Every structure is written in C-alpha cells, then in structure tokens.
Amino acid sequence: MIKGRTALAVVTMAAFSTAANAAVTISSAATANMSCSKGVCAPTAVNAVLNAGDLESFLASGSVTVTTTGSGVQAIDVQIVAPVTWKSPNALSLAAYHSINVDQAVSVTGLGSLSVTINDGGKGGIFVFGSKGRVAFSFLSSQLTIDGAPYTLVNTVKDLANAVAAHPGGDYALANDYSAGKDGTYNSSPVSTTFTGRLNGLGNIISYLSVNDANQSDDVGLFREIKNPGYVGSLRLSHVNMKAIYSLGGITGLNDGYLLNDYVQGSLSASGFVGGLVGLNYGTVRQGNAAATVEGETVGGLVGYNCSDCFSLPGIVEYSRASGTVIVATENPGSGGGLVGGNYGTIESSWATGSVSGNADAEVGGLVGGSNGSGIVNSYATGSVYGGEAGGLVGASYDYISDSYSTGTVSGPSGSTLGGFIGFDEAPSGHLTDCYWDETTSEISNPDQGAGNKKNDPGITGLTTTQLQSGLPSGFKSTIWHEKSYVNDGMPYLIANPPQ
Fold this sequence. Notes:
- Residues 1-20 have low confidence and may be disordered.
- By secondary structure, this protein is mostly beta strands.
- The protein contains three helices and 60 strands.
- The strands form seven sheets. It has a 32-stranded mixed beta sheet that branches.
C-alpha cells in the first residue's frame, strides 16, 4: 500500500532522454556552464547546471526563462532534479529542444505562473514526471501554459467533472494532491462526460477515490470514456476502490485517446473487462504503470482488453508495466494477464511482475491471458500463473511474439495445459522468434514444454536461471536490452523501461 509520495513506483522518464548528457539540469549542484542575464538562463555548453537556489533567487526579483538553446550551443532536455519553490508573482518559463523531465517538486506557492515548451526546435519530446516529481500550485488563479496552450487549474474531482461537463474538449491540469475520501462513494464515473480534451496531472495524486457503479454503466473509471483526441498524462491515483459491471479501469473504462505516464494503485473488480488503468483500450497507453489488485472476466494488471482495428483504432500498449495481483473471477473461461487480459492489439517494450490466477478453463499468462493481435515484442513477465491454459508469458496465443521471455512459476489444476512460455499455442508456424522461459524458476524444466500443447514449439527455448543471467539471449538487441547483476535479479531488462 502507498504510505506516502516517496513510495510511488512511478515510471521515471529520464530513460527517454535522447542525450542524457546534453541537458540543462536544475539541481543542488553549483551553477556551471550557464549564462543568466536579463531574465534568460541559457547554456554555454551542452551539459549545463543551474543551481535551484540560484533560480529561486532570480524568480524572487523577476520572471525567468530557462532554455536549452545558447549562443552556438544546443542542449537537448531540461531535467529538474532538485526542488524549486517561489512565492513571488513572477513567471518561470522552461523551453526544451526535446523533453522536460521533472524528478523533484516544483512548487508555485504564490500567484506566479509556469510555462513549459517541449520540442522547441526538436521533435519527439515529452513533458513527464519521475517518482518524486510534481508541479503544485497553491492558487487556482495562477497560470499554466503548456506548448502555448493555457490550462485551467482544478484541485478537486468534482471541479474536474464540472469543468469537463461544461467544455469536454478543454485543457485542464490538477493543481495539487487531492484526497477524494471526503467525496464519499461515487455511484458512477466521477467524470461522466466523454472527454476529448487534455488533462495533465502534473505528477499530483488523487487518493482514496471510491466508485461503486449502481447504474450498471457500460464503462466506469475516473473518466467514463476518453475519446480521440483526448489525452490524460502524468496523473496518479492511489488507494482507489472501484466496482462495476461491464468495463472498469482506474483512469477510464474506455480509452480510444492517448494516455501517457499515468499510475494507478488500489483495488478494482467487475464482472467484465477490468484493467488497473483501462478496462477497454482502443487507443494508446504509453509508459503506463499499475500496482492494483484486479478481478474480472477479461482482466489485466494494466489493461483489461487491448484491441487493434476496433473501430479503426490502434490498440497500443508500450513502455508500460504492472505489478498488481490479477484474478480471473468468473464461472466462464475468462482470461487474465499480468499486463493485459485479452490482447488484440500491439504490446511493445513492457513487463509485468504480478501473480495471475484463474479457474480450470481460464487462459492465464504472466504478461497476457489470450493474445490474437498485432504482436508482442521486447517484453517479459516474472509473476506466477495458475489456470487451465497457463504460460509464463501468454496463456493462449494466436499471435506473433518475438524477443521476449518469462520466469514465473506455471501451474494449474489437473488436466491443465501448461507451457513454460505459452500455455496453448495456435499461432501459424514462424510467429515465434527468440522467445525464452526460465526452466529453473518456472518449474517446467522439460525443454520440450515451451508451449503446453506443442512439443518443441519452434521459436521457444528453455534456459536455466544461470544461463539467462550470463548474458543477453540470442536475438536480444543490446540497443534495447541490458543486463547487470544488481538490476532485475541479473535478468535482462529494457533500457527504456527499467525496473525500479
């Protein structure tokens, strides 16, 4: 359970910086390679430091722009690794050629304003938050601008719901942490209006949100539905308690928009599609993270059902992770996965560590319960699985899978189909490439049993723990995977999505 802010296991985004050493870093170290004059601080070398105390002193007397572009010098990112606070009514502007990564608290305690600009000459950058990063405003009358767009600040769930109801396509930001326990239990999605705008959580936490859907709605979550081009980023939910009938997710019951760097922890249960973040995903979930206990019929630690080509939408889960317990709670066959319950889309560069369990008819996998989508690439699972068709990575597969591995214990009731990597494989020949399972930890040591229904299934190889720890398996690219004895128990991990 989350005891406080420092316990949040949120994806840190520093790994996505295109050039880690080419940054303007706001830190507790002495200012170096920075020129600050007439309210503008610019680098004099690609690796520059601006002392947080110096920045606070500048803000006390006037507005300040921190940029990555100097005279003949181009740094890439702005990284905030020390707390910054100011009470004056002055403005802080951050302009990054690529990304802005906030790894410590930025606190606007007066009537000051903040402006952030990413891709200021570059492309592909993002504005994201590490585990201790957040931006907090003491007053809703302060101003926030992101890439030139003004955002309306809100500080309660009800205020957010009212704002979206009035303007579903608006731009909003969560001004501070908020405990929703005082709201009581909502009997439907708090934000029931279909959302097509943008919400930036700024790394702030909504805690103790309780929803018990009495209306038997189709889709339930903090948001009922996020519809393209809707966007929710850097929003964190802790200690959620949600119950519904059909589809349920902590952030939203139905997503066909874009979710970036969101986190959910708590408990969610429904009789249909359930995911820690999203019940039904037809859009994109990127750098999502969930540590929730989830129960349902098609249930995943992060996403219940991920679908490509549903209403001509992509169904993408990438650079994401989940660590919660997954329970297939139904008398029907059902499917459960540590990350995704039913996958008919794309999963890339993701992992799961939670245990997955189901009945004698359930498809259960450490990463995915049942998969018949556009492929699973560069992913892994370490959680134990128990069910009727059980595999360390996928329970039942009709899918293309490559460059992936699993280590979890695989078991099931009498008569189950058990495979070290896949429980039941019905994919065409050639759909499996460079797939591995741990013969030691899975308790499936028979090298023929990579798939439960096919002996010596081509493309799946069993390795011992020692072998997996002794170097990257054949086919794993060193630009994507890395291995260190003190990271991930010495097993391969994703450079762009490392364990924490």
